[in-house]
Amino acid sequence: MTATIETPLRSTAGSHARPDPPATPDRPARSTALAAQLRARLSPAAVVLADEPLARRTTLKVGGPADAYVEPATELDLVELLEFCRAAGVPLRVLGRGSNLLVRDGGIRGVVVSLAQPAFVRVTVTGERLRAGAGARLKEVANTARRHALAGLEFLEGIPGSVGGALRMNAGAHASWVFDVIEQIRYLTPDGEVIERPAGDIPAQYRSCSFFTTNLALAAVFRGRPDRAEAIGERMAAFNRRRWDTQPRQPSAGCIFKNPAALPAGRLIEELGLKGHRIGGAEVSSVHGNFLVNLGHARAADVLALIDLIRTRAQAERGILLETEVEIVGED
Ligand SMILES: Cc1cc2nc3c(=O)[nH]c(=O)nc-3n(C[C@H](O)[C@H](O)[C@H](O)COP(=O)(O)OP(=O)(O)OC[C@H]3O[C@@H](n4cnc5c(N)ncnc54)[C@H](O)[C@@H]3O)c2cc1C
Questions:
Q1: Which residues pair with 186 in a beta bridge?
Q2: Does the CB atom of residue 82 touch ligand 1 within 6 A?
Q3: 27-118 belongs to which CATH class?
Q4: Stretch 174-191: mean pLDDT, rounded?
Q5: Residue 22: helix, strand or coil by DSSP?
Q6: Surface-to-core class of residue 220, CB atoms within 10 Å of its CB (0-12 exposed, 13-18 middle, 19+ buried)
Q7: Residue range 248-329, CATH number
Q8: Cα–Cα distance between 173 and 243 in angstroms, integer?
Q9: What angle do CA 267, 273, 276 make, to 5 degrees?
Q10: In CATH terms, is domain 121-231 a member of 3.30.465.10?
Q11: Which of 6, 56, 283, 311 is 20 to 30 A from residue 274's alpha carbon, by CA?
């Protein structure tokens, strides 16, 4: 099957007095055609949705639709999807739990793939090692480790992401990082090859592992150390309390900016007097300056305008260039 996307053209019937306007692609129709091609290619258990709003799939709850949203049922489906997109020149983006993403209001062209089906979310334990699919929630990883009396993974409990998103972001909290606690990684290369490799071979920095901008994480093996389950549970509860005391409860994407060398981004934003500042339906949280929250009716444009304002003020008044931790994707 040739993987081309049919682009329905507008009707050319019309006035003789003026030339027809140039044919522009009708996006919903293109999305429907793309989804139909994907359904024909993937297993019946795969989920394929056309023109799927991404606001409902990100924690900030803003952003336009993906042309096609796919949940493959198996690794084979995923390889097929990758091959289809490569052959058809359709962009492919992985979505974890959407907790570090700011999707622009125009949405994402091409395919958004989510590893949400059972084949990708399994968490199993063998001795001191815990293997988790890339779609598994970090909370599930931490709780499974606790149930098996394995310490060292408590810090993952309150990070609302998936294993795949945490690998890409080298997520961390309470002085620990994901790359401190993983031994092995399974991933899909851009050529469709599935590889397992020691995590130590893959460089990661503060809040980033660029290897996963091109490779798609499939699973990771975490290493815990034996401890009493009650002691682990107590540490998790303490971390949890600290989060609830210091972070807002409204929808957000966590910390918007990476911490600059000089001081934490939250303190800088507070010192700039921007806590509580609103644009449209978005607000700089009055609880934590580095969180931008959705008051219920925000658009991505509101959040982007707040980001711009903070960066401009930080640069002008303190000479500090703030870099976003949240990833900004999609079209205006
Ligand atoms: C309330 C709140 C608190 C937070 N606290 C913390 C915290 O304490 N520490 C911290 O580090 N972060 C924190 N975050 C941010 C976020 O939870 C982490 O960055 C998390 O790792 C993102 O995971 P995700 O699955 O949501 O990824 P997404 O946001 O869906 O995606 C993030 C990036 O990962 C990529 N990606 C996702 N899955 C894969 C995959 N399988 N293979 C390759 N790339 C993939 C995406 O394409 C994207 O580039 C917080 C967020 C919120 C909303």
A1: 196, 219
A2: no
A3: alpha beta
A4: 96
A5: coil
A6: buried
A7: 3.90.78.10
A8: 10
A9: 95
A10: yes
A11: 56
Short-list 330, 332, 216, 315, CA closest to 272: 315
Q: Which amino acid is at 289?
A: G
| Cα 33 to ligand 1 centre (Å) | 30
Matching residue, tokens 């150390």 = 225
Please indicate whether residue 100, judged by its CB atom, sits closer than 6 Å to ligand 1.
yes
Atom of ligand 1 nearest to the CA of 101: 29
Alpha carbon distance 52, 112 (integer Å) = 9
- The torsion of the CA quartet 115, 117, 120, 123, rounded to 10 degrees, works out to 130
pTM for this entry: 0.92
Note the pLDDT tens digit of each residue in 15-65.
333 444 444 458 889 999 999 999 999 999 999 999 999 999 999 999 999
* Ligand 1 midpoint to CA 207 (Å): 10
Residue 166: phi and psi, rounded to 5, are: -70, -35
CB distance 107 to 66 below 8 Å:
yes
Topology match between the domains 121-231 and 248-329: no
φ, ψ of residue 206 in degrees (nearest 5): -55, 115
| Ligand 1 probe mutation, 169, 212, 252, most atoms within 8 A of CB | 169
Is there a contact between 79 and 276 (Cβ–Cβ < 8 Å)? no
In DSSP terms, 87 is beta-bridged to none
